[in-house]
Amino acid sequence: MTTLRDAAMSSKAWPFEEARRLLKRYENAPPEKGYVLFETGYGPSGLPHIGTFGEVLRTTMVRRAFEVLSDIPTKLICFSDDMDGLRKVPDNVPQQELLSEHLQRPLTRVPDPFGEFESFGHYNNAMLRRFLDTFGFEYEFYSAAEYYKSGRFDETLLRACEKYDELMAVMLKSLRDERQQTYSIFLPISPTTGRVLYVPMKDVNASDGTITFDDEDGIETTLPVTGGNVKFQWKPDFGARWAALGVDFEPYGKEHAPNTPIYSKICRILGGKPPEVFTYELFLDDIGQKISKSKGNGISIDEWLTYASSESLAYFMYQKPKTAKRLHFDVIPKAVDEYHQQLRAYADQDAAARLNNPVFHIHGHNVPASNLVVPFAMLLNLASVSGAEDKTTLWGFIKRYAPDASPETHPDLDQAAGFAVSYFNDFVKPTRQFRAPTELETTAIKDLLARLKGWTSTADPEELQSMVFSVGKEHEFEPLRDWFKALYEVLLGASQGPRFGGFIALYGISETIELIENALAETHS
User: Fold this and answer.
1) What distances in angstroms separate CA 129 from CA 192, 272, 374, one per listed residue?
2) From its phi and psi, is residue 209 left (phi > 0), alpha (psi between -120 and 50) or beta?
3) Which of 23, 73, 173, 182 has the highest CB neighbour number within 10 Å of its CB?
4) Do residue 71 and residue 93 come from a single domain?
């Protein structure tokens, strides 16, 4: 009998492929620290965004897959580099002048422009934790400032002093000549200005764990590398963190991929074993350009959640993480409907098929049932033809199609109806374009109209779909999808839509007759 673990060992779902790679690290012995450590990194110079969600979600998916494969305990940490200097003032925060006075100071020493926390770093850390908690992620939060100050990085910092020349040799190979002259793996915090300094070292003393450099005022200064006086440059920081924490798995965007060998060498020199790295592709906007927070050319997580559920976003994130994907508003309807299709399929699948189903990786062993009895795409078309201003209008039609459904018994459907009205009014209504039918299409549409007027059977979606299909075949549309495309463009002002038989059943036969008659009248007016 095939067990769940057996099925997982052969599953082609990418989280299981990553989890099996991770499992090989400990095929001879379990980790000395007692658990497998998954890490995601966060730069708290701005608010959490959709990329943050995707990174933690995908890591959680691999962690969940690993837990099917192995009984070794796991831990997921979200590490905030809040010791980093404030490089520029974000555009979307108040008190810009206040922040500009604190450029290059560690984020945990920059005042909170919102006046809620002891620093800007603390504010953004709190927003990150609130963000992750909202989506139910299981994680532990680690602060770089806390780790540097508390001594938890002391052993690694002191070892870096001992291995300074070796570490510098790795880094200097990757730098241009002019940068080599001023580079150091250590960034001291100026005792006079409080800023993070990018200065060369005059001396690194491994025996007493100190560095010597010229402060901003030109005075030669010596500081211990411990106690929060010094932090690592960002590339050495990656490798040092891996070594200090014993990180086993870390995801990051493809922009980091060229640096992976550097991170790994730093980690090994400092006595650690580099983690398994998962490099994912970046998102593109509606015209195929890389999404940029500063350009604002993508879609934010709040915008997605205005038109669809977080589960549909998780489904979108699951799909082909190593392929660049357009992340724009027009992907939302497809993601919603495909997510619910997978939910419905899951109920009847065997163990192997379930492990390949995206909803397992979204929900784990607690996959809910779908009660979205009307597809999101159809709700959009219904909002279009009915001119719905709120979901109450849609429910008038839904009750005809599914008499036993109600907002209380079908909360997914109720939520989707509200999303559909918002999405239609914001994106479909301003851009929809109706067109006049061709001569062939006019003849076929008139035939469809006549058959609907003579329809005596129940409004069964499958029977109606077969009838619409027959009309297209008899009028020799080739390919047949051109017939359905014509119906969408002429009647709904869209280039695609749901199964038309289901739409008729939902909207109503008499209402569809009126819709067709109005469209034909417009053509001849």
Assistant:
1) 32, 28, 35
2) left
3) 23
4) yes
